[in-house]
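Researcher: I'd like a candidate sequence for this fold, 399 residues long. If you have to choose between options at a position, lean toward the conservative one.
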């Protein structure tokens, strides 16, 4: 199931400046407050700090003006979608704060650096920058900023396959939000998708149900369609076809007016899964030849290969199964999805009684499943234990 993390919003720097006096103020001379100090204390600064400060720009020191220039350039770059440039200016602002001990601004700049790093897929760097901010007092009391930080951390840990951490951050978000907030529905969908990857299908099902009901109540057809896709996928992954066709028909009806290519593909992909589970192989192969031309990304390409490999195993077409596995494992995938393919490779070689190759792939699957916190690791370990007992039995017979 594709996670539907809502688009990361690079919230305006103007909306998140320190509400207290910035630390880069000059020391007042002869007991007089600087113009910047006065501006920082005014109501205008609290509503639009950069704009309020700009009006008295000439009164600032070169250091103060340099910091403002970096923030303005970062703001302009993010509005134009130039994330590398935005990060460059934010890094410069951060370096300036570090050099001259402008501590009051550092945490706010750090938040925007973390968001930019997330947009640039610099996952580990974003986590390093954002994680300390989770317990930072100003952000703890600012629900909007807390959401941005936790949301980016959830994305980064998910992409790095650290699903237990993803679950933690998403649960924090869930407790922050009201049921009437569309982000509450997004979070349930993302938690459900995370539980799917962790092999906890019952939990995934419950969160998809919550998401579907809430999206319907809010009148959000897009998220309701995604929730129905998730519900149907959870059913199919457990080998059940109950109500799946009804769910997919309803999702398709909701999607008619949305013109979302990935949503349309996801519905067709689940219909494709349904054909395999029902062993309707003629229509399965026909859909495969259609979907392989439309696959939108590597994640869905891997899922498509996975379904094809399961079909190959069902009809005992071992050469084709091995060929498809080779293609699938070459894709650049996150750890949880790669773990499923490695487990499938182990299953393929177990059924061919190629014990050494089966053991090789199953151990790799165990490593990947452990890394992402999946409960499915225990089933794979049991397979390895059975394989080890069988190998010892054969060695005993040989003696």
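Model: Candidate sequence:
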């Amino acid at each position: 199931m594709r996670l539907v993390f809502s688009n990361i919003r690079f919230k305006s720097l103007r909306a998140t400046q320190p509400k207290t006096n910035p630390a880069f103020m000059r020391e007042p001379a002869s007991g007089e407050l600087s113009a910047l100090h006065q501006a920082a204390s005014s109501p205008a600064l609290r509503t639009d700090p950069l704009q309020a400060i700009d009006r008295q720009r000439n009164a600032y020191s070169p250091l103060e003006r340099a910091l403002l220039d970096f923030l303005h350039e970062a703001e302009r770059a993010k509005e134009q979608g130039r994330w590398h440039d935005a990060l460059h200016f934010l890094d410069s602002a951060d370096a300036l704060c570090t050099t001259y001990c402008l501590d009051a601004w550092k945490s706010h700049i750090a938040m925007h650096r973390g968001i930019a790093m997330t947009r640039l897929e610099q996952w580990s760097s974003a986590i390093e920058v954002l994680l300390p901010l989770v317990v930072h007092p100003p952000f703890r009391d600012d629900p909007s900023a807390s959401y941005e930080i936790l949301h980016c951390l959830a994305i980064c840990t998910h992409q790095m396959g650290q699903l237990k951490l993803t679950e933690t951050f998403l649960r924090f978000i869930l407790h922050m939000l009201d049921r009437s907030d569309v982000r509450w529905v997004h979070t349930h969908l993302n938690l459900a998708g995370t539980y799917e990857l962790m092999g906890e299908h019952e939990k995934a099902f419950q969160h998809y149900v919550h998401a579907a009901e809430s999206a319907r109540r809010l009148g959000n057809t897009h998220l309701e369609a995604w929730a129905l896709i998730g519900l149907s996928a959870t059913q199919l992954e457990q080998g059940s076809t109950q109500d799946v066709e009804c769910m997919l028909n309803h999702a398709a009806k909701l999607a008619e007016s949305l013109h979302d290519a990935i949503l349309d593909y996801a519905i067709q992909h689940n219909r494709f899964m349904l054909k395999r589970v029902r062993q309707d192989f003629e229509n399965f192969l026909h859909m495969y030849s259609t979907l392989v031309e439309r696959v939108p990304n590597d994640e869905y390409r891997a899922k498509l290969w996975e379904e094809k490999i399961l079909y190959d195993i069902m009809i005992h077409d071992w050469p084709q199964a091995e060929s498809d596995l080779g293609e699938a494992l070459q894709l650049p995938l996150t750890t949880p999805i790669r773990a499923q393919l490695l487990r499938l490779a182990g299953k393929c070689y177990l059924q061919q009684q190629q014990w050494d190759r089966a053991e090789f792939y199953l151990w790799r699957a165990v490593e990947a499943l452990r890394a992402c916190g999946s409960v499915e690791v225990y089933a794979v370990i049991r397979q390895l234990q059975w394989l080890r007992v069988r190998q010892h039995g054969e060695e005993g017979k040989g003696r």
